[in-house]
Amino acid sequence: MTSLHLLLFVFVAKIVAAADRDCGVLPITLWSGEKSRRTSMLKTPVQLVVIQHTVSPACYTDQACESILRGIRIHHIVDLDFIDIGTSFLIGGNGRVYEGAGWQRIGAHTRGYNDKSISISFIGNFNNELPTSKALKAAQDLINCGVYNNYLTKDYELVGHRQLSATQSPGDSLQDLIETWPHWKKFD
């Protein structure tokens, strides 16, 4: 295969992946066994992406990630009295993106911003280390797919959770990294 053919193949593969309206996200029904309980709809496209971490153990397999996600969901519903899991999307160290509230439902992730943003939460604690390269790539692919499918505006802004709330999320290491990403915005 020539370099030109390889380049064309990669370009087409990226377009096909971006064209997937679900963006390769594992639906909540598949990892939790039931539909989302959230019914309030998010007006899209939104302009804000909030990056978070779960401060749970990290996970690197589908089975481990899904077990952690079910625990987070139960915590949100039972202990925090949320309707359902609050985060829009969660990403495991395996590079898999899991649906929480998703693209179209209002989540409960950042007080004052839930109805005008989506959140992406990396599973684990990222104060002293970064998510896996697979997880970081999955987040960037998810954002690109969100723009392509008009869930996010082309001029979206990206922030760490700590920039909007009194929290350490998304962790020191991850915050430092996202400040180098395109569309990162400094909030005063």
Descriptive terms for the model:
188 residues, alpha/beta, Lysozyme-like, five-stranded mixed sheet, 5 helices, 5 strands, innate immunity, Amidase_domain, disulfide bond, Peptidoglycan-recognition protein
Helix-strand blueprint:
Elements: H1 3-19, H2 28-32, E1 46-53, H3 62-79, E2 89-91, E3 97-99, E4 117-122, H4 133-148, E5 152-160, H5 172-178
Parallel strand pairs: 1-4, 1-5, 2-4
Antiparallel strand pairs: 2-3
Number of strands: 5
Question: What is the overall shape?
Answer: globular
- Share in helix: 25-40%
Q: What strand order characterises the main sheet?
A: 3-2-4-1-5
Could you tell me the mean pLDDT?
A: 91
Write up this protein:
- The chain has 5 helices and 5 strands, in the order H-H-E-H-E-E-E-H-E-H.
- With 188 residues, it is α/β, with parallel strands linked by helices.
- A 5-stranded mixed β-sheet has the order 3-2-4-1-5, covered by helices on one side.
- A hairpin with a 5-residue loop joins strand 2 and strand 3.
What is shown here, in short?
Helices cover 34% and strands 15% of the residues. The protein has 188 residues and is of the alpha/beta class.
